[in-house]
Write a structure and sequence with these properties.
About 10% of the residues have low confidence. Helix 1 runs antiparallel to helix 5. With about 425 residues, the protein is mainly alpha-helical. The protein is built from 18 helices and five strands. It is elongated. It has a five-stranded parallel β-sheet. It folds into two domains: about 200 residues, no CATH class; about 200 residues, 3-Layer(aba) Sandwich (Rossmann fold), CATH 3.40.50. The two termini are about 25 Å apart.
Length: about 425
């Protein structure tokens, strides 16, 4: 284990410890618990229940890991197993923090309620600090891993999945409350829970999807290390942009998202359509329908869409990011520290990929692939005057039928390391 890994795991462990302390303060205030701990906390309060809140949290996290493995199947990697010791540490630290904060319980007097409110606010603030530290470590606990899994499998936005997950945890806790106690226990799931939910959703709304990335060449020369999955670890001083063009069914979107997650940078695909719709004052469904059309009767409309998308791409490239499709390599041509990738695959691989993804027959999948690739080729030629699949436009061409999605992501991360280090 190298220095970078030790530092990352130390930060991760510190984030769990901070989270445990904040959670314990909230529980001891008896005004409600953070959403993520609602189910185990309610169960721990049942009379005669011998399992502690930490032990129940540990069991819940192990269940979350099992769900991830079931949903991701072959995409569930050895690296994800780090969530198991993280679950054990989380449970132990929560119980330790509960023991340490035992004196911090207050009566029902005016002073006592004031102290409980203050303690709840402080606890929530500490929990959010723990989340921020965990984000810096780029590791994830089982609950965050489950949110990412749902995001990947449902192709939804992380913010939406996170909000639904937290609301669901509160709903499950309330269900347990009513079932075991016959009514809602406001000292278990109360005003503190609602406040924590609002703060958490607000935090996820305003924080960037990923930490912007900037490279520091001096730091590279002193610590030229990589993570265990060949992901480079950086300190940064200028924006890095990765554009990914891809044939349909090659897995280019998934590779781009994986690379963005590993490097801790922003990711743009359908988000560009949403921003284009806002810019033009149109419905996003219409913009998505027109996204790659280039017909003579709609030439003015298409030019407006492309112009708006191009400006959005340039604005996005002011911070480090991965951009999928939309002629981004052409729009950002000549830009320094821009890595242009083309992801392709053999037809049989693409057919299998699309059939599994969209539940199509083999004939339907082949036709969808043919039409999509033809539209992308025509779109690229119309706006750039070049051939879409010409390898001379790209710094790296990858065939996922031979390499695989995981290995393709590793190759791109290593290429980033070589380019920025150079």
């Amino acid at each position: 284990m190298n220095t970078a890994e030790i530092k990352r795991y130390a930060i991760f462990a510190a984030s769990i410890a901070v989270f445990a302390v904040g959670s314990a303060l909230c529980m001891r205030a008896n005004l409600g618990i953070i959403p993520q701990l609602c189910p185990p906390y309610v169960l721990s309060c049942i009379p005669g229940q011998e399992l502690s809140v930490g032990m129940l949290t540990m069991i819940m996290h192990l269940l979350f890991i099992a769900i991830q493995a079931i949903l991701l199947r072959s995409d569930f990697k050895m690296r994800d197993l780090v969530q198991i010791p993280a679950a054990l540490v989380t449970g132990i630290l929560i119980d330790t923090a509960m023991t340490a904060t035992q004196p911090l319980q207050w009566d029902d007097s005016a002073t006592g309620y004031t102290m409980r409110i203050v303690q709840t606010i402080i606890g929530i603030a500490i929990v959010m600090t723990g989340y921020a530290i965990q984000h810096q470590s780029r590791e994830k606990t089982a609950d965050k891993g489950l949110i990412l899994t749902f995001t990947q499998t449902l192709k939804a936005t992380p913010f939406l999945v996170s909000a639904i997950f937290e609301i669901s945890m509160v709903a499950i806790g309330l269900t347990f409350c009513i079932f075991y106690f016959g009514s809602v226990r406001w000292d278990i799931i109360g005003a503190g829970t609602l406040l924590s939910l609002i703060v958490s959703i607000s935090y996820n709304t305003h924080k960037p999807a990923d930490k912007p990335v900037f490279w520091n060449a001096d730091a590279a020369s002193s610590d030229n290390s990589t993570t265990t999955d060949d992901t480079p670890t950086f300190n940064y001083t200028f924006p890095l942009v990765i554009t990914i063009a891809r044939t349909h069914g090659s897995g280019g979107h998934d590779i781009g998202y994986m690379v963005a997650q590993r490097l801790g940078i922003n990711f743009y695909d359908k988000e560009i359509i949403n921003e284009t719709a806002k810019t033009l004052g149109l419905e996003k469904e219409k913009v998505q329908q027109w996204d790659q059309e280039t017909s003579i009767r709609s030439l003015g409309r298409d030019e407006a869409v492309f112009s708006a998308q191009s400006q959005i791409i340039r604005d996005a490239a002011k911070a480090s990011c991965v951009i999928i499709g939309r002629c981004a390599d052409f729009v950002l041509r000549g830009r320094p520290y821009c890595l242009n990738i083309f992801i392709r695959s053999d037809e049989d691989y693409a057919v299998t990929f699309i059939r599994n993804k969209d539940n199509l027959t083999e004939e339907q999948a082949r036709e969808v692939i043919r039409l999509k690739n033809k539209a992308r080729e025509r779109h690229y030629a119309h706006y750039t005057g070049d051939k879409w699949q010409d390898p001379s436009h790209y710094d790296l061409v990858i065939n996922t039928a031979k390499i695989g999605i995981e290995s393709a992501a590793n190759i791109i991360c290593n290429a980033v390391n070589n380019i920025t280090g150079g």
